[in-house]
Amino acid sequence: MNTKEKKEFDKWMLNQKVLANNFKLSVEDIHNLYDMFYMITWQDYEKVFKPNKMHKWFEEFFDRLEEVCLDELNNKMKKEV
User: Fold this and answer.
1) Is residue 32 within 8 Å of residue 65, measured between CB atoms?
2) Phi/psi class of residue 53: alpha, beta or left (left: φ > 0; alpha: ψ in -120 to 50)?
3) Is the dihedral of CA 21, 23, 24, 30 positive or negative?
4) For residue range 15-66, what is the model confidence (pLDDT) as tens digits?
């Protein structure tokens, strides 16, 4: 990597860090992601995630997402009672 490419890369990385710090998911976004998990069929899983070696990431991501969503639902139900 030459000096010009390195400078461009560093500038890009700095921009990505700024964008990442400002990135926040709303409650609705999280629930939409959770719903998407149930829209994916086993065929999609076998054809897309496994060949691309994304199946482990997919499972772990939705396990973490489920903890957040279910905890929020439990808290909401406790408040209503």
Assistant:
1) no
2) left
3) negative
4) 888 888 887 777 787 777 778 777 877 777 788 778 878 778 777 877 777 7
Q: Is the pTM of this model over 0.90?
A: no
Q: Check: CB of residue 31 under 8 Å from CB of residue 70.
A: no
| Radius of gyration (C-alpha) of the chain in whole angstroms | 19
> Cα–Cα distances in Å, from 76 out to 34, 35, 55, 71, 81?
17, 18, 31, 9, 9
**Closest to 49 measured CA to CA, from 37, 35, 64:** 37
Structure tokens at 21: 């710090």
The pair of structure tokens assigned to 42 is: 């086993």
CA-to-CA dists, residue 3 to 8, 9, 17, 64, 79, angstroms: 9, 10, 21, 40, 58
CA 38/CA 46 separation, integer angstroms: 15
